[in-house]
Amino acid sequence: MTPAGGFPRAPIGRADRPTLAVVGATGAAGTVLLGLLSERADVWGEIRLVASERSAGRKLAVRGEEVEVLALGEEVFDGVDVAMFDVPAEVAARWAPVAAARGAVVVDNSGAFRTDPDVPLVVPEVNAHAARNRPRGIVAGPGCATLTMIVALGALHAEWALEELVVSTYQAVSESGRRGVEALRGQLAAVAGAELGVHPGDVRRAVGDTGPYAAPIALNVVPFSGTPAEDGWTTEELAVREETRRVLGLPGLRATATCVRVPVVTTHSVSVHARFESEVSVGKAHEILANAPGVVVCDDPVAGEFPTPADAVGTDPVWAGRVRRSPDDPRALELFVCGDNLRKGAALNMAQIGELVAAERAED
């Protein structure tokens, strides 16, 4: 039976649980989120799936049930307790305040609110407490490059106090959405079987249109992610810096990033140079990381064991390995981290924040 508001009632046994809206349910991370909602502890009552007008009426599976997709509009937030947004920043900027004004706590995965001082930037394994202080009714998550490293980095910071950070990211094309994946697959098909990559420009000529990237992504890496910013940096590189500062509560942290696009479909990697206030050791770092929630240690290079995107893809934790103490600095560690950019880099972090808010409601 459908009540007067036009939405189905929560299933029997879930009527006293919070109502969730998933905005952007048909996107790449939205699809992963629906899978996670089916796999994780079921804390939700009704789940509403919301997308653009062109996707309205589709039916998607969540928790083993077919749920019809609703068109984004003010009324879909009536009675919603938590709204998870995985949409472009301009859409989130318009609609997240609408959802919050109607009483929902918004969990936003876009970049629309990540620098807003009235919106906490939250990674539950690192700063779960911050989610409770939300003056605008919105909680944001960092970008997927930051999320790839921040869980491991946060655990090390808690022990030794981070002082300086230099990272290089190796980012998968799925961050660019369907266009990125199609560009990589199309370019791989164009170069397959050909003796390319041995002369200047031969790969570029073979692939023709480079899609969303300034250079070919097949048989290549592209040292540019985001859009141009001041002094030669990119928006993505500056975001990694600022997001890390906010999540760790270190506004003066010396931090730089170089962001690189690589020919990987899904799963980001980050090479990390971290300098701490205290002297470090590889053995203690292994112990810290092995005990950190959401981290898997994979570090036996002699046996060929270290994190790679091909192994980490489709898994929830971040994988850490190649842990070394800097040969010239007893307070600095080098490590390599991989994380699925659609799971912990997006959908899983949203799900975890939503569960924090649901637990708050249960306390009331």
Automatic annotation (TrEMBL):
Coiled coil location: none
Name of a matching Pfam family: Semialdhyde_dh
Keywords (A to Z) from UniProt: Amino-acid biosynthesis, Diaminopimelate biosynthesis, Lysine biosynthesis, Methionine biosynthesis, NADP, Oxidoreductase, Threonine biosynthesis
Gene Ontology BP terms: diaminopimelate biosynthetic process; isoleucine biosynthetic process; lysine biosynthetic process via diaminopimelate; methionine biosynthetic process; threonine biosynthetic process
Lineage: Bacteria, Bacillati, Actinomycetota, Actinomycetes, Kitasatosporales
CDD domains membership: ASADH_C_bac_euk_like (cd18131)
Domain Semialdehyde dehydrogenase NAD-binding residues, every copy: 19-134
Active-site residues, record numbering mapped to chain: 144, 268
EC number: 1.2.1.11
UniProt keyword NADP present: yes
GO molecular function: aspartate-semialdehyde dehydrogenase activity; NAD binding; NADP binding; protein dimerization activity
Subunit structure: Homodimer.
Domain of life, source organism: Bacteria
Catalyses which reaction(s): L-aspartate 4-semialdehyde + phosphate + NADP(+) = 4-phospho-L-aspartate + NADPH + H(+)
SMART domains from the UniProt entry: Semialdhyde_dh (SM00859)
Similarity comment: family membership: Belongs to the aspartate-semialdehyde dehydrogenase family.
Keyword Translocase carried by entry: no
Protein name: Aspartate-semialdehyde dehydrogenase
Species the sequence originates in: Streptomyces radiopugnans
